[in-house]
Amino acid sequence: MKQKHFSYRPTTMAPNGMITTPHYLASQAGLKVLQDGGNAVEAAIAAASTISVVYPHMNGLGGDNFWLIYDEKNRKLIGLNGSGRAGMNVSIDTYQRLGLKKIPSRGVLAANTIPGVVAGWDEAYRYSLNKMNGTFRWNDLMQTAIHYAKEGFPVSPSQEYWTNINLAENDKQQRNLQRFSEFKRNFTKLSGQAYRAGELLKQKDLATTLEGLAGEGSNLFYHGDVAKKMVEDIQHHGGLLTYQDFTTHKSDWVEPLSVAYRGYRAYNLPPNTQGIASLSILNILNQFDLTTIREGTADYYHLLIEATKLAFKDRDEYVTDPDFHNIPVNKLLKEERGEELAKQINPMHMDNYGNQLDPNGDTIWLGVVDKDGNAVSLIQSIYHEFGSGFIPKGTGVVLQNRGSYFSLNQNHVNCLQPGKRTFHTLNPAMLFKNDRPHLVYGTMGGEGQPQTQAALVTRMIDYEFPVQAAIEAPRWLYGRTWGEESNSVKLENRINDVAIQQLKLRGHNVEVLDAFTDVMGHAGAIKIDQDSGVKYGGADPRGDGAAVGY
């Protein structure tokens, strides 16, 4: 008898199109485009621009994005790297001359890479128009975002929480973003307090920027008045980016990477993303028969945690901008490498393999499948919550702090160099069956992204969880949190006590967290039944999202 799997929400089912995002207003924006005959890329742009307004602590125009796009007409999966490069005046020497031993996490010196989001939207839009019979005007895809920026949207509990965190004085974590006047003006009330959940937040400067983008396209952001405004204020405050850095920015089409998994094929993006780690975990797990391991037991969690450590060890040794460093991608993803790493796992004891892991990664992932079978897996981020905290005056654009991940050690694989893309935690995913999309999936969560992707795949493929149940099931996170010196295994308290105790006995440093904590990230997935065409969508109750279809 097939095991039943509980979920608080039902899996959303629809015969035509489906979209899932971590904010319901963005899901609705994308759904409207699908219902009006738009394709998956057009719906993704409408949703991505909207969520950049209504979830500003997680993403925005000042961040980066990465895309997997399946083009059904041409039976082709393509990847798009929409991340920005360090400015040409941004170097290790620059920071050392300023007396800094590491790149600051916040402020204008943290905003040292060009924002790639808008160029990513533009490049995907042009592909849709030229290759996928796109019909929507660029201007129309921006209208929902403009509306919520101009007329206001109800602040989410997530935004209220993270705004308050970043208004508190905490020098160790370099938060206290109220020290930035434009941040206070855009994201707090006149009293200096955070907007409370349900209160309307209007972003007039951002609305003006979006209206300009709607009319002039991405040229405004990289060559026009917005670019000039951003550069002027960045340099006024001692920042390093130049107008030429903006004018020379471009997104790049890339070949997705893949590994075999249980008769399916998992796809992700190449470096500078950590997609290689997400695939490596599956490559390791593919060497084990999970039908002999019960999901939800210590055996299950232990195996996935140890596979993660081994995948991260390879990742940390190699992943950076491939234009600056030779990365043996094919070798690292060969089945033989999966076998080699699998043999290193001790089923009864944990091992220490790697470095301290980064505790941040506030991001959004969204997925879309349209009535014709086109699919998009898109991830978009400003890195830390509210990114650098620096907003160039008059633009409403929160600049990311992704470049703070660069190392100032010239011998480090991810050392800072002018024109270089930094290591990126962002990695959107798809799983193919019979050379067509079967699962479109992803999550926010920095180091947690490869781990949660593995949870989704194993639960839906190996254990036949319904989509929503796989997303809601108790999760774990191997890594560290702010201010801590070592990695730990964080477990949601819905994991049973027996499993927790057994993990401790195997040597894991365990922390038990609240149920449905957003520390675990906001995951989503869409499964496509290739026979009936029915789409099955799910969204994470740890976020504010919805899976909707028609």
Helical content class = 25-40%
How many H/I helices?
19
In the CATH hierarchy, what is the class of the domain at 270-360 and 445-549? Answer: Mainly Alpha
Q: What does the largest sheet look like?
A: 7 strands, antiparallel
CATH architecture of the domain at 270-360 and 445-549: Orthogonal Bundle
- Gyration radius over CA: 22 Å
Q: Could you report the average pLDDT, rounded to the nearest whole number?
A: 94
Beta strand %: 15-25%
Q: What's the CATH superfamily of the domain at 270-360 and 445-549, by name?
A: Gamma-glutamyltranspeptidase, large (L) subunit, C-terminal domain
How many beta-strand runs?
19
The main sheet orders its strands as: 1-18-17-13-12-9-8
What is the global morphology? Answer: globular
Gap between N and C termini, in Å? 32 Å
